[in-house]
Each structure stands twice: as structure tokens, then as C-alpha cells.
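Minutes, project check-in
Item: structure for the 554-residue chain
Input as provided by the requester:
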Amino acid sequence: MSKIPADYLPPKELWAHYTAPEEFKQFASGQWNIAEELLDRHVKEGRGDNVAILFGDQKITYKELLAMANKFANVLTKAGIGAQDRVGLRLTNMPEAVAINFGIMKVGAIPVPISPLWAKEEVAFVCNNAEFAGFAVSFPLMAAVEEARHEFEFPTKIIVVGGKPEDWEAKKCIAFGKEMAAASDQFTNVKLSADDIGVVLFTSGTTGQPREVLIESHLVNKYVWKIGPGEVLGGSAPVSFAAGYGTFCMIPFAGGGAISLLPKFTPDDMMSTIVKHKVTVVTGLPTAYRKLLEMPNFNDYDISCVRMYTTGGDALTGKTLAMWQAKTGKPIWEGLGGTEMMHLVTSNTMSDIPMPDSIGKALPGFEIKVVREDGTTAGPGEVGSMLIKGPTATLYWKPYIQDNKLLKTMKKGIKDGYNMMGDAVMMDKDGFIFFQAREDDMIKSSGFRLAPSEIEDAILRHKAVRDNAVVGIPDEVLGQKVVAMVELEPGNTASQDLASDIIKSTMDVLGMYKLPREVVFMDAIPRTPTGKILKKVLRKDYPEYPTKYVPKVK
């Protein structure tokens, strides 16, 4: 790897074992350019006039997208950015974001998506940690970058998309529009070895190789979304989030389909965009589907163009699945992925109909096993730790900094060549996997190891419950006591009787030892922008909640 020092990656003996499905083994070796496979190939094979991106009233063909990507590759080359240099992406959902990503890949550089929500301290850390040679930023997202700029330790060239060129040039930035207008739309792609670095995704700084990017893109497209020419994938995930990056900047292009980009999610904008762009596959967070279900004017939209709905990132719940299927006549297919593994590793699409409350089965090429705390294999229906081996794997960037922090994490996270995801799951006899909790969120009470998701699903069945989260709170007698945080449906009032009734309603599916010892009613369950419950916040703030109801169930 030409520009990646050896100590920027863990020693090879710590790497997980890679396995590639036979049908995509060609990507596991040799020389590749990711953009050439996902973009150029379609133009070369005669699909240049097919639509690649839909954005408002805009339609951008594969031929036009290729020209944009080539132009940006030339902009980068002019700026002195090349193979294995890192280039940050802090971009809003717009066609330029996709072109910029492919342009980075064309020069052999490494895209690094940066969350639009990060403040200046986080921006500065990632910029310095990844040693950005370039940083492409949408004009509306420049504030934190400008604040952090004086802390940049490397001569990072900031490329601003939007705004007035003269203003940015006065600040020694590169004006995207001006440079693109002058750039050639022809470019010779730089190829990388299959085991070079192809992308860096920041959870803690996870890398992905060209072989991983290409295999994962083809796998998810073939076995989950099944998008081909004429199909349109829609959703609202930000392209600068890791999940949104894979969803809208890579995977659909493996099959030559189109993407529908939505600048920002609102229920009405989502529905109207589905209709306008004739979206055939919708992907979204469970919270997005629940917000759509709450729309009083849901039936005003003709969304018969959609053939498939998918989700991930948080528990869908059987209740939401049933409500959506009753409303639309179509199920929502759930899966599980992770930034460390690039994208999805399981999906309910691996069976003919989705299994309620399941994240499905392993995608082809991935091997999943569930183990007990002592490392032995868990039996069907038994909760344990999920271990994964496949064509993608955890590989941390700069593991030796901060007192070898990520090196220690990797030593714990790779077991016998398998990636330990940190998820507690159970697998049934047919191979369906059921997510229980992040292992840090499992509750140890009176000697039992309890999965919050099972309790949450039981509570959610109550007609007064809109949302809920179950956490373990330290207790001198029990070790941890089970506490249910409950958000009520409008029109319901918190009370001792309601707390008792909610917990009583779970007793047909939960043993006594699983029942919450307390109920805390909340205005809203706190979630991240990607829909995950902030359980650390709930545990930290627990002492401050003024009213805690002890349910009476006997």
C-alpha cells in the first residue's frame, strides 16, 4: 500500500479471516478501481442513458454521473490528491455527493464520510486522525469545519460545494463549482490492489478494502434489494452517515439501478418523493416507518410503485411489521449490519416471507455462530454473543494511538478469526437470528441474563404504549433491577394504575423474573439521529426522574 504506513493498521495476525462467496471471488484478488466497477462499467456496457440519480426535478443519467465523477477526479489530481490519500466527505444529500465519492475512488484515494451532526472537536479529531489531504464539504455544513480548521494538523485542502466561489477562494478553499466547470470530463482510473484500503468509516475508525466494498455491494444488492436497471431505491439516510453512504453511494450501483435522494426526512416529503420518483424499493429506519404510519393523510399517496420495504439500525418490532403490512399489503424486510462490517450481514430476505421480530439469516458468504460466555456454541433459542466471519471484517485505523486503545479493542473483538459484533442474539433451529440487545445493554438480575428487547416487545403490545426502553439499574439486592421507560400514546395519562396494567399485560409472555420492577413515564424516548435508543443516557439520568411507579401485579 503506497501511502499507508504499516503501523496505521493492526498486525496481520490480529485480522479476522476473510471468506468470499464463489460468485464474487474475482474481487478478492487482483487490481480494481471501485468506481470503474460500480459506475464506468454501466456506461461501457451500453447503459449510459439509464437514470442513475433522481433529485427533486433532476434526472442524472449514468453517462452524466460519469462525466461529473471524472471532472472531480481531475479537480483532485490538480490539487495534488492521489492514491491512498484520505478525503473527507461532509455533504448533504445531493447528486454532487455521489459524484464526489466516485471521483475520490477514481484517483485511488480513500473516502471518509463525516457525520453532518459532528461538532468542531469531532471534525478536527477525524480530520487529523485520518490525515485528510482533501475535505469536500457542503456549504450549509461548513460552520463546524471553519471553527475546527485552525486545529487541523495537516495541509488539508477544503473543497466547498455551494456558496460564492470568490468568498471561499478568499478563505483559501477550493470552490467546487468553479473548478468543476474548468475540469475535463475524461479521466484514466487509478487501480488499487484488492487488499489496499478502499474506505474508512468512523465509528472508532474502521477501514474497508476494495474487495470488501465490491463484494458487499454486490451481495446486498443481489440478495436484499435486487435492484437492476429501471429500479429506484429511495430513503432518507444522510450520505455522510456510514449507513447512508453504503446505501446511496455504492450498493444500488452494483446492479445498475437508480437512487432517489431526499434532502431531509419529513413524512410528507418522503411519501411525495416515492410517488414522484416512482421508487420501487424503500429503505428506512423503524422510526421512519412508525412516523409514516401516524400520517392522517397516508392513503392520499399512491405508493403502489413500491415492491419492497426494508429496514435496519434498530428493532422493527412485530407490532410495526403487522401495522405496516395491514396498511400497505406488503411486509418490511429487516436486517442487521454494522459500520465495522461495511453494511448488512443478515436479512429476512433470505426466506420467502419475513420472520417477525427476526433480523433474518446470514447473507451468502457470511458465517454466523452464537456462543456462550465460555466460548461454547449456544443451542437453538439460547441467547449468546454473535460471531461473524465473511467477506467484510473489522480492521481498525491507527490502532496504536491513545495507548493502543483500538489495538486492545481489536484483540478482544476478533475471536478465532471471527468478528465479535458486541450483539447478544439467539438463533432458532432454522437459522433465523433474533437480536436481543447490545451486550453492554443486557441486564443481569438475580443471576439471570435478560434481553431488554424481549421485555420491550411485550410492553409495546399495550394499546397505551407508543414507545419504550428497558434498562438495568444497579441494585444492592438484585445486582440490576429491570426498569421500563415508557412513552405513552396521546390521550393517556401516567398513573400507578396504568403502570400496573402495562406490566400485567406482559405476564402471558414474560416470566415473573423478567418483569420490570419500576415504570418511568417519559415525554419521549431519546434516540440518536439513526433511531437507536440512547440507553446510556437513560441509565445516567435515572436518578433525576422524579416519579417512579412500582407496578402491582399480584
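Outcome recorded: The mean pLDDT is 92.
No further action items on this chain.
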